[in-house]
Amino acid sequence: MPMTAPQPAFILVRPQMGENIGAAARAMWNFGLERMRLVSPRDGWPNSRAAALASGAGRLLDNAGLYDDTAAAVADCDYVFATTARPRGLTKPVVTPERAMEQARAMIAEGRKVGVLFGPERAGLENDDIARANAIISVPVNPEFASLNLGQCVLLTAYEWRRQTAEYAPEVMEMAKTEFASAVEIEKLGDHFEQRLEAAGFFFPEAKAEGMKINLRNLWSRMPLTRADVQIFHGMLRQMVRWKERGD
Prior knowledge:
about 250 residues, about 45% helix, Alpha/beta knot, single chain, elongated, about 10% strand, alpha/beta
């Protein structure tokens, strides 16, 4: 399978349930990762339950590397992260998923190979696995309930990888077949409101009228109005006048 871009290998160590392997594959593919390695899956390989849960990410399972032990799975890696929620009594850097994927991106850009170890569902990675890693990834979760499902842990890490390698605006405005109103259009809307409110005697007392008009103009300038919004407001004002003239 051709790789779309340099990326870390996600290594599932002794995963116990095919469903979780499938969920991990789906999480990886959600964020553009496709290098999966499996170390001694408990229920053997291939696994029909993994394929069922992977949904559209089945090709990751088809091309996953299969290894007898962790040493073989990380043999070609220049740097390895190990995910664990429990202190292990080993002296290693402990980083968040965000920091880990930031470091992974920098190392991969230099041509280095990076692996990320994920432990089995029940007990996580053993010390022998973690001893082969250069750093530990620890997710800042509730300390009273720190255990993460395998698929969840993979998803969190994959998400941080995507954040480090793709540019996304933190906020966008979805325009539904319209565009933002121009300053002139908003100015005319303000004029229309002032005319109608003036006729209705809204600007009272006279000494406060000018300040009230300025506040209204300021209100319009704060609102991200679209052309459709402006048309609706104009229509509302016109209909209100027609209703009054009909005497309904």
